[in-house]
Here is the input.
Amino acid sequence: MRFSSGLALKNIKRKPFRAFAMAVLVMILSFALFSGAYVIISLQNGLSGYKARLGADIIVTPNSAKGHGTVDDVFLQGITGNYYMAKNDIDKIKNTEGIEKVTCQFFLTSAKASCCSSRVQIIGFDPETDFSVLPWIGETFDGTITDGDIVIGADVSMPADGTIKFYGENYHVAAQLKKTGTGLDQAVYTNMNTIKKMAQSAKALLSLDEFKNADIDTSASAVLIKVRDGYDIGAVTDDINIHVTKVQATSARSMISSVSDGLDGVSGIIGALTAGIWVLSAAIMMAAFAMISNERRKEFAVLSVIGASKKMIFSVTAFEAVLICLSGSAAALLMAVLISFSAAGDIGEMLSMPYLAPDFMTFVIIGSGAVLLPLLTGVLASLLSVLRITKNETGMLLREDA
Here is the structure.
């Protein structure tokens, strides 16, 4: 064993360029496998988080919200906006048949805050009726959100003094939420009393057209609805859209479905590219090892003459393949990890989809697969090539190379 590993290492040192070229090929294969699996799993995690965070069957926003994008733009991409529906419209929504639970949210876009490099969306919710935000907050905070408290998303910087200033007032950060991979990670949450106070301060400090025709005390930006068992969500959604003319009701199912369809398409493309790269790399590795083995015919023959068995020749070749594949895979993993962590937010933003990195154990499994598959491919390609060459008798090999 020691002889085989030592000879394999010497062979690599004797032909460094050949070993380097093979390692680069393995690196490409390993990088493609890791990156493809990592992105697909991150997208699937993001979709799961998106489903969990919606928490409602139907989301209703005023027609004025269309100027800020679709309703899921706020939840999915964190697009900010101030838009409000009147109390009369909210009452009509609440009186729609088939509704079991209803809660209101109030959106307020902050000016450039001390905690952030850009504006953030502040979302006010009613703790007494809420069924969407409180379960999420409960994952990291078991206290009560009192007046003056705020809860920040995972991507909002936690201030050293535990307070954030909005419109001239300091607010206490009570907790930070778990990451979801959606636009909600850049949002700030508080109760209705606090956000109405913020809105009054914003109205006094800034000239906001959105507040000119809105009664801050009775308005809402979104109404979240749970549909009663036995009622069709689509029918209740249509009922709201028909009878409340100044709002747009959207079923959470359709929002999730559109994201899921997009995820399936992206995952399919990434999976196909990864499989294509693996097949191409495996074919190139087979051809490369065959060429290398063919060049080493005389070397194998000499080893046989001095007493080396075919098993030992296989062992030397396998050690070379292992060393080359491990070095290539290690370089690929290092590069993939650096890119994956540094560009995670950019990937999600570029795809306009929820994106949540996998946990440590999943990360280890993906990394192990990205190492083992190229390793097995390389060793198998190497041994098959050597087997083809060593089928001939030793004397015949020497005569062919004479």
Observations:
- Residues 54-258 form one domain.
